[in-house]
Each structure stands twice: as C-alpha cells, then as structure tokens.
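Hello,

Our lab assistant flagged a job as stuck in the queue for most of the afternoon. It eventually completed. Since we weren't sure the result was trustworthy after the delay, we are filing this so someone can double-check. Below is the sequence as submitted and the structure that was eventually returned. Let us know if re-running is recommended.
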Amino acid sequence: MKKTSIVWIGILAIFLVIGGFLMNSYNHMVSKKEMVENASANLDVTLQRRADLIPNLVNSVKGYMNHESEIIKQVTEARTNLINARNVSEKLKANDELTNSLQSLMVVVENYPELKSSSNFIQLSDELAGTENRIATARRDYNTSVNQYNTSIKKFPNRIIASFFGFEKESYYEADDSSTKVPIVDFE
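-- returned structure --
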C-alpha cells in the first residue's frame, strides 16, 4: 500500500507540474496579447488625435488656397478613411493615404508665405508635427508588442498551447512603399 501511495503522489506531482507549466504559458501569452491590444489602442488614440487636427488645419488653409481644392479634398477624404478604418490593415492604408496627402498639402503651403506666417497655421502645424512624433512612437511600441507576442506563440512548447487555445499571429504596422516617396506637386 505504501508503494501505491508513493506512485500516486508521484503521478499527481507530475500532473501538477505540467498543469502549472501550461497555466503559466497560457497566462504569459494572454499578457503578451493584452500588450498588443493596449499598444493598438494607444496607436488608435494618437491617430484619432491626428484626424481631429486635420479639419482645423484644412479650415485655416482654405482661406489662403482657394484654387487648391483638390489637395484639400484629398486630405479630407484620407482623414475620413482613417476614421472609418476597422482593422490594422485598413488603418495602415488610410494612415499612409493621409500622410501622403498631408505631405502634398505642406508642399503647396510653401507657395503661400502669408499662410506660413499665420499664427493659427503655425500652431496647428506644430501640433500636427508633435502628433506625428507620437504616432511614430506608438507604431514602434505596437510593433515591439507584436514582436514579443508573435515570438512567444512561436516558441516551443508555447506553439502547441497557442494553437490549442487559438492564439494567432498579429500583423506589424508597416509603412507603405509610397510613404518613402516625396510627393510631386505640379502647378502647371
């Protein structure tokens, strides 16, 4: 009877160790997933701040640039697309559109010295520049969280646990190829 008790205690100990390992791995992956979602939410907040600044910037520019309505229309449409984006890939595409249209707008602004010296425009430009820096930081934080999470669910034996509990790879927030190109503005 003593040997049987020792065997059962040994088996119970093995199950407890395995159960503890599984629970620890699962909780670790949940924590990493929550970090990704938190970073995504922070990025959303920053993108929303940027989108909220756009109407004020457009309104301050409209008075000076009556014949540049196409660029203003592009900025407005890109902002709307960003606000309506529902997932990371849509946000990526909409953010790149907005970045490109804002770059085009800033190139056009160079031709309006009165606008460039307007205190309202200067303040909005500074706020937008600060927001762009926040977006870059939020992107980096998001991608770091995604990297840690993806690495966590790919490692053995977490890979088995991740597939069993439905943890899936997250997408990185990557810049579009067009974001490295300088916008071309032709007034002719």
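-- support follow-up --
The delay was a queue issue, not a problem with the job. The result is valid. The helical segments are 2-62, 69-84, 88-109, 113-117, 119-154, 158-165. DSSP finds six helices and no strands in the chain.
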